[in-house]
Design goal:
single chain; 458 residues; 11 strands; extended
C-alpha cells in the first residue's frame, strides 16, 4: 500500500513537471505567434511603404514639374491679405486717432488646435473706425455706446537704409608743404564692426547669417530677396562677408570652447550635410555637423556649439571630445564608446533614442502591438522621471545622495520591467526584423543606458 502511494506520488510529480513544461512551451509559442503575426503585418506595411516610395520616385522623374496653380494650391494666394501692416494702416483717415502702447502677453485662440501667442513687448497700434450711426428698427437714430474691439496681427516688412559714416580727418597747420604738394591727413577710426571699411553694416551681416544658419535660406535666395527690395547684392559678396566674419570670431569660438569644458554634462549628436566642394575632392561629399549642448549641476542650460566634421570616425569623435573629463550623453554611436576607453569622461546612453527605435516602427505600422506595449512601459518610466526632476528643481530639492537613492528605487522598477520585456521578446523575435533591431539596440547598450542613475544632474 505504501509503495503504491509512493509510485502514485512520483507519477503525480512527473505529470506536474510535464504540465509546467508544456505551459512554458505554450507561453513561448503564444509569444512566437504574436511576433509572427506582428511581423506579417510589418511585411504588408513594408510592401506598401516601398510601393509608395517607388510611385513617388517615378512621379519625380516623369511627373509634372511645373508650378502652375492647381486646385489645392489656389488658397496659397490668400495669405497676402493678412501679412502687410501697410494695408491695415491705409484705411486710417487723416483725422482718425492712432496710438501705441505696450501690454501684457496677448493670446488669441485661432481654432481648436492652434494658439497664437504674441510677445508681451509687442506694441499695439490702435485704429479707431468711425462710421455713420445706423437707424434702429423703431426708426430712431442710434447713439454710440462704446467700441467693439478686435485684435489682429500685422507684420512690418524688412526695410533698407543707407548708413552714411562721416569720420573726422585732421591735418597739421605747420606741415602744409609747398604749393601743389599733397598734405598729410589723419582719419580717426572708431568703427568697431567686424567688417569695418566695407559696405556691410552689422545689421545686414546679422540678417544674412541668421537667415542662412538659423532658417536655412541659401545665399542665392537671399540674393533674389534683396533684389526684390531694390538692392543688388551678390551671393559672392555675402559669402565673403560671412567668411571674413568667421575668421574674426575665432577668439570667441575659443572662449566658448573653454566655457563648455567647465560644464559637467554634454549632450552630443551629429547630422549629415552635403558639401558641394571640398579641396582635393572632385565630387560632392557627405560631411557632418556635430552639436554639443551643455548642462550645469543645477539643470540650467549652458552654451551650445556646432562643429564641422569632415568625417564621422573614431578619431574625429575623439578629437572633438579632447580632454573633457565629465559626462557625455550620446545616441549610442560606437565612436563615443571607443573614445571613452582612452578618455577620462563617462559615456552615457540615451533612453530617448532607445525609445525612438520602437516609435519609428509605429510610424510605418500604427497598429504594431509590440511597439505599443514597450512604448507604454517607457511612458511610465518617463512620467516617473519627470515627477522626480520637477521635485528636484523645486525650491526645496533633495540632497544628491538622497535623490540618487529615491531615483534608483522608483526608476529601477520601471527599467526592470522594460528589461524583462526586451529579454522576453528577443527570444521569439525574427532576426533582422525592425522589432528585433530595436530590442538588440537597447540590450547591447543597457549598461550605458542606465548609467544616468549614478549622476544626479543627468
Amino acid at each position: 500500500m505504501v509503495k503504491t502511494e509512493e509510485k502514485q506520488g512520483k507519477k503525480d510529480q512527473s505529470l506536474e513537471a510535464e504540465n509546467q513544461l508544456l505551459k512554458s512551451h505554450v507561453s513561448t509559442l503564444e509569444d512566437h505567434v504574436t511576433v509572427l503575426e506582428t511581423e506579417l503585418e510589418n511585411k504588408a506595411v513594408e510592401v506598401e511603404h516601398w510601393k509608395n516610395l517607388y510611385l513617388s520616385a517615378t512621379h519625380r522623374l516623369y511627373g509634372k514639374k511645373s508650378e502652375a496653380a492647381i486646385a489645392s494650391q489656389l488658397t496659397l494666394f490668400d495669405e497676402a491679405e493678412t501679412e502687410n501692416i501697410a494695408e491695415v494702416l491705409e484705411c486710417v483717415a487723416e483725422d482718425e486717432q492712432v496710438t501705441e502702447q505696450r501690454v501684457k502677453t496677448v493670446t488669441r485662440r485661432l481654432n481648436k488646435s492652434r494658439i497664437l501667442t504674441v510677445d508681451a513687448n509687442t506694441p499695439i497700434v490702435e485704429v479707431i473706425h468711425e462710421g455713420e450711426a445706423p437707424l434702429c428698427h423703431c426708426g430712431s437714430m442710434m447713439e454710440r455706446s462704446g467700441y467693439f474691439t478686435r485684435d489682429a496681427i500685422a507684420v512690418i516688412p524688412a526695410s533698407k537704409a543707407i548708413v552714411r559714416h562721416s569720420t573726422a580727418q585732421y591735418k597739421c597747420p605747420c606741415c602744409l608743404g609747398d604749393e601743389g604738394e599733397s598734405q598729410t591727413l589723419t582719419v580717426t577710426e572708431e568703427d568697431p564692426s567686424l567688417l569695418k571699411g566695407t559696405i556691410c553694416e552689422p545689421s545686414l551681416l546679422a540678417t544674412i547669417v541668421a537667415d542662412k544658419m538659423a532658417y536655412g535660406l541659401p545665399l542665392y535666395r537671399q540674393e533674389s530677396r534683396f533684389k526684390s527690395m531694390g538692392v543688388e547684392l551678390s551671393r559672392q559678396a555675402m559669402s565673403g562677408w560671412m567668411m571674413s566674419a568667421s575668421t574674426s570670431l575665432k577668439p570667441l569660438k575659443a572662449a566658448l570652447e573653454r566655457s563648455v569644458r567647465e560644464y559637467p554634462l554634454w549632450n552630443v549628436d551629429e547630422t549629415a550635410l552635403q558639401v558641394l566642394r571640398i579641396e582635393g575632392e572632385d565630387e560632392p561629399k557627405q560631411c557632418f555637423m556635430a552639436v554639443r549642448t551643455t548642462t550645469a549641476k543645477d539643470f540650467t542650460k549652458g552654451p551650445v556649439i556646432f562643429d564641422y566634421l569632415r568625417r564621422r570616425t573614431n578619431s574625429s569623435i575623439s578629437d572633438l571630445l579632447g580632454d573633457y573629463s565629465y559626462a557625455v550623453q550620446s545616441d549610442g554611436l560606437s565612436g563615443y564608446a571607443t573614445a571613452a576607453k582612452s578618455g577620462s569622461f563617462t559615456h552615457l546612453g540615451c533612453h530617448v533614442h532607445a525609445r525612438r527605435k520602437f516609435a519609428d516602427i509605429l510610424k510605418v505600422q500604427k497598429n504594431n502591438a509590440l511597439a505599443k506595449e514597450v512604448l507604454t512601459l517607457y511612458a511610465t518610466f518617463f512620467h516617473h522621471e519627470g515627477e522626480l526632476l520637477e521635485r528636484q528643481r523645486s525650491k526645496d530639492p533633495l540632497g544628491e545622495d538622497e535623490y540618487l537613492a529615491v531615483r534608483r528605487k522608483i526608476l529601477g522598477k520601471d527599467l526592470a520591467a522594460i528589461h524583462d520585456w526586451l529579454i522576453r521578446y528577443k527570444k521569439v523575435a525574427i532576426a533582422k526584423s525592425p522589432i528585433f533591431g530595436a530590442i538588440d539596440y537597447c540590450l547591447k547598450r543597457w549598461e550605458q543606458l542606465n548609467a544616468f542613475l549614478d549622476i544626479p544632474y543627468v
